[in-house]
Design goal:
heterodimer, A: mainly alpha, ABC transporter involved in vitamin B12 uptake, BtuC, two-stranded antiparallel ribbon, 13 helices, 4 strands, about 5% strand, B: alpha/beta, Rossmann fold, six-stranded mixed sheet, four-stranded antiparallel sheet, about 35% helix, about 25% strand
Chain lengths: ~300, ~240
């Protein structure tokens, strides 16, 4: 295996991991944009999507159908969270909204543990997605699920790009994120925009959850916590509330994590998460608005 | 006006509170179809609050707002735009991260007739030619005067029957202020009904048919612009409690 092959391999890994972070972070940013709320339950929506697929595919439903149902289940979960938990406190002080968001997370995770127990269950991935591909005489290998992650992320982010730059609803969501009063004044139905934002963000979370579980091979009620935390870091690096920022932040974080492990001695790379959070702190100090929004302060 | 045109907007005894502060203490005013009416007065007199409440951004505590015969007090802002009231707000409040074209498109978001919207875009480019050159540019990168023109055009894209204007001269270079007010005069000539809030009382009274002078949340006096222009009581109203 040559040096170049090794580097290429790590790049594939970084893009694959970054894609997952980007998918989750984009959803966080969409919701934060219209509601100015950090939706901690976003990770649990991922879990809903992954469990939906695990249960359906486990019961014999064809995998692609199960995936579509899982994404739909995640979207419905997001819709319900907005309707039941967030809408009644939309105008409440920030602290109340933040605590509500945390409470929703705990409620969903604990219900998940009650129903499914906290022990991991198998995620039934079809064999075709479990195969590995070898390039340049086996120097580089990637699994089909790696490729699928990259491809699906690419397609879904293109779709999102079209949505937020070409459709009135998507433009309206960005407008409301910038200036809520002005959005009201041009006649945008802000209530409807918030509902659409939750559906879109949650569908992306569902997809991310499914891909995450597929790579891990298992599902578990608290599986959303780690990706949520990482996506949060990614969103802050890119500029919280900015969809493009979340995307950039996701890929930067993915690359950072993979490259720390790949290229630094193990005595250093075992501190991977500490290094990542040190980078986050550095960003908060030097560029609190994130890469793409140098002049904006974040408010959770 | 020999035969007065019908009343388009009628505000009766409007009261608005911000917490414990009584921002409007019972304001009444009328705007007839085709008329330009100015709201003038010192800072904090309640001019912007009046416009915000008509647009549905603030809830009235008391009183009535009647537009085209229907009460609209307290209904959703998007419904009010659909009914035919658009506002160009103070400080312009453009969507700075969106292009000029997208700002205009959102201005028309309550409308479904694409052809009519297209015709109105063309009208905007006649009225404000600079916008046509800036279509792909982000609104936040425009100059103050260009932004004000875009704010007016965005409001007009809703095809309103009543246009609310809050401080169209604020933060705009003097030369462009003249340009903007000549555009407003052109709109008036075309029959647009407007309710104008403006710090610059000379500009306001030159454009408006009638004016209301507000002082600490109440109408201090009102009348035809020509009469108010020479009135010492206008100056007194501005000075506040001195009378």
């Amino acid at each position: 295996m040559t040096q170049l092959d090794y580097i290429l391999q790590q790049i594939v890994n970084a893009v694959s991991l970054g894609s997952l972070y980007a998918l989750v972070a984009v959803g966080l940013s969409i919701v934060f944009g219209v509601l100015k709320l950090t939706n901690f339950a976003h990770g649990d929506v991922m879990m809903v999507g992954a469990f939906g697929v695990a249960l359906l595919a486990g019961a014999g439903v064809p995998f692609p159908v199960a995936v579509i149902c899982g994404i739909a289940a995640a979207a419905v979960a997001g819709l319900l969270i907005e309707r039941i938990a967030y809408r009644p406190i939309r105008d409440a002080p920030d602290v109340a909204r933040l605590l509500t968001s945390l409470a929703v997370t705990y409620i969903i995770e604990n219900v998940g543990i009650l129903v499914f127990t906290s022990s991991p269950r198998n995620f039934p991935l079809p064999d075709i997605l479990n195969t590995s591909w070898e390039v340049s005489n086996g120097a580089i290998t990637f699994t089909s699920i790696n490729l699928l992650t990259i491809a699906l992320t690419f397609v879904s982010l293109l779709l999102l790009g079209w949505f937020i730059t070409r459709t009135t609803t998507g433009l309206g969501m960005r407008a409301a994120a910038e200036d809520m009063s002005a959005a009201h004044l041009v006649g945008l139905n802000v209530n409807r925009l918030i509902i659409v934002a939750f559906i879109v963000a949650s569908a992306y979370a569902g997809l991310a959850g499914i891909l995450w579980a597929a790579q891990a091979g298992v599902v578990q009620p608290q599986m959303g916590f780690t990706p949520l935390l990482k996506a949060f870091v990614a969103a802050i690096i890119g500029g919280f509330g900015s969809i493009a920022g979340a995307l950039v932040g996701g890929y930067i974080l993915g690359a950072l994590e993979i490259f720390i492990v790949a290229f630094l001695p193990s005595s250093v790379s075992s501190y991977r998460d500490a290094i990542v959070f040190a980078v986050l702190i550095a960003f908060l100090l030097v560029r609190p608005g994130g890469l793409l929004q140098p002049n904006r302060e974040i408010k959770l | 006006m020999a035969t007065p045109s019908p009343v388009l907007l009628s505000v009766e005894n409007l009261e608005v509170n911000f917490g414990a502060v009584r921002a409007l203490k019972g304001i009444s005013l009328d705007v007839h179809a085709g008329e330009v009416v100015a709201l003038v007065g010192a800072n904090g007199a309640g001019k912007s609050t009046t416009l915000r409440t008509i647009s549905g951004l603030s809830r009235p505590r008391g009183g009535k707002i009647i537009f085209d015969g229907k009460p609209i007090g307290g209904i959703a802002p998007s419904r009010i735009v659909s009914l035919g009231i658009a506002q160009s707000p103070e400080g312009r409040r453009l969507f700075g991260g969106l292009t000029v074209a997208d700002n205009l498109r959102l201005g028309a978001c309550t409308r479904t007739d694409k052809e009519a919207v297209g015709r109105d875009s063309e009208r905007m480019f006649m009225l404000f030619p600079i916008l046509k050159q800036r279509l792909k540019q982000l609104a936040g990168t425009l100059s103050g005067g260009e932004q004000q023109q875009l704010a007016l055009a965005r409001a007009l894209m809703a095809a309103p029957r009543l246009l609310l204007l809050d401080e169209p001269s604020l933060g705009v270079a003097p030369l462009l202020v003249r340009h903007i007010f000549s555009a407003l005069a052109e709109l008036k000539r075309q029959g647009m009904t407007m309710l104008l809030v403006e710090q610059n009382i000379t500009l306001a009274l030159d454009l408006a048919d009638r004016a209301y002078v507000l002082r600490t949340g109440q109408v201090a006096l009102s009348g035809r612009s020509a009469e108010l222009r020479d009135s010492e009581r206008v100056a007194q109203a501005y000075l506040g409690e001195a009378t």
